[in-house]
Amino acid sequence: MVRARTWTVEITITEHADERRTHADAVVRSARPLPHGAGDARRRPADQEVPEIGDELATARALADLAYKVLDAAADDIEHVTHRPMRMLS
Questions:
Q1: For the segment 22-78, what is each residue's pLDDT rounded down to a tens digit?
Q2: Between β-strands 36-42 and 21-29, what pairing exists: parallel, antiparallel or unpaired?
Q3: pTM, whole model, 2 decimals?
Q4: Collapsing DSSP states into helix, strand and coil, what is residue 46?
Q5: How many CA atoms lie within 13 A of 72 on its CB side?
Q6: Which of 1, 18, 41, 50 qualifies as a cystine partner to 57, CB 3.0-4.6 A?
Q7: Is 63 exposed, middle or buried (0-12, 13-18, 19+ CB in 10 A)?
């Protein structure tokens, strides 16, 4: 029997032009609460202004942050079930 579940990742991107910074928050929508990830991209004064690049970098960093936090949550759950210390290997 196949059991399917859907988790949706919502990414909110905020551009702070005065700071030359783009911020992204990644949140998983699932049956139980999970952590959120955050990432930033900064543009040097000499860099060309290309908002899409800031969006991509900030989003990638937010998703990477989220991935590590979800791995940590899984390790915590395994420890809770097994009553033994757990260390996740990547």
A1: 999 999 998 888 899 999 999 999 998 899 999 999 999 999 999 999 998 889 999
A2: antiparallel
A3: 0.88
A4: coil
A5: 10
A6: 41
A7: middle
